[in-house]
Design a protein that fits this description.
The chain has one domain. It contains two helices and twelve strands; from the N terminus they run H-E-E-E-E-E-E-E-E-E-E-E-E-H. The strands form two sheets. It has an eight-stranded antiparallel barrel with strand order 1-4-5-6-7-8-9-12. A three-stranded antiparallel beta sheet has the order 2-11-10, with no helix packed on it. A hairpin with a 2-residue loop joins strand 8 and strand 9.
Length: 255
């Protein structure tokens, strides 16, 4: 595990611990979701951008200058909130997405560029730390399976193309800042980075070798998550918060 991965894990632990202390010592916050009015799941979509920060191995003495490039990202999927909000992880989501990864490598006066296009499946477990009545921090652990359906290389310096395999698998971490824009709409800007690559030829690294350098894909996205309205025939106590259930039980006992 490298220093950046350790830093991410420590940062996540600090954020989560801070959130729990605010819950214990802070004022009581309103529930982010109106359990009586909305189902515990719905659709999500997330437009975004990718970027591929890169570096040269320390022992490489050649005059190589790799650079990341911006490219596009788009995601659509579903989410499901756990019963009574869950214990540690509060909801899951799964989606299909498109992403393009692009980067460059300059050697002397020669510049090479790569562009890779992927269709991928995502699965995430999400922890919510409520900051106020309308804001929260979201920490997510997930996996993604990527299929590279096309690629283009402008290989001016003649360096080798590592990792041209079509199937990629990664464990990733995502952190986001959520806003309750409406009762049924949550907007969550997020940053996602790979933690561990599960493919044998990458030896468990969180970077990909392309040309003579290594690149770490980063995804910047803005998630729009929509809750569905309950139908008239829905059970009235289905999905209620524990506090609402107690109130309902007391009301029934008093009748």
């Amino acid at each position: 595990m490298n220093k950046s991965q350790v830093f991410i894990l420590l940062l996540s632990f600090f954020i989560i611990s801070s959130g729990y202390s605010q819950d214990i010592f802070g004022r009581r916050k309103k529930d982010l979701i109106e359990y009586r009015s909305y189902r515990m799941g719905g659709w999500l979509f997330a437009p975004g951008l990718t970027y591929t920060p890169s570096w040269v191995p320390k022992d490489d003495k050649r005059d190589i200058n790799p650079n990341g490039r911006l490219a596009v990202y788009g995601e659509v999927g579903r989410f499901q909130i756990f019963y009574e909000g869950g214990n540690f992880f509060n909801y899951l989501d799964y989606s299909l997405a498109y992403k393009r990864l692009s980067g460059a490598e300059k050697y002397n006066d020669l510049k090479s560029i790569f562009k890779q296009n992927f269709i991928l499946g995502n699965f995430n477990l999400n922890n919510i730390i409520q900051l106020s009545d309308y804001t929260f921090i979201q920490n997510s652990l997930g996996v993604n399976l990527d299929y590279k359906f096309s690629e283009k290389y402008d290989n001016a310096n003649g360096s080798g193309n590592e990792n041209t395999n079509n199937l990629l698998f990664s464990l990733h971490y995502k952190i986001g800042y959520g806003i309750k824009a409406k009762n049924n709409l949550f907007i969550i800007p997020s940053i996602e980075v790979p933690i561990l690559n599960g493919l044998e030829w990458e030896n468990g690294k969180s970077t990909y070798g392309i040309f003579s350098s290594r690149y770490k894909p980063v995804i910047f996205s803005v998630r729009f998550a929509f809750l569905r309205k309950r139908g008239r025939d829905a059970c009235p106590d289905n999905g209620l918060s524990p506090e609402d259930k107690k109130k309902q039980e007391m009301h029934m006992m008093g009748q």
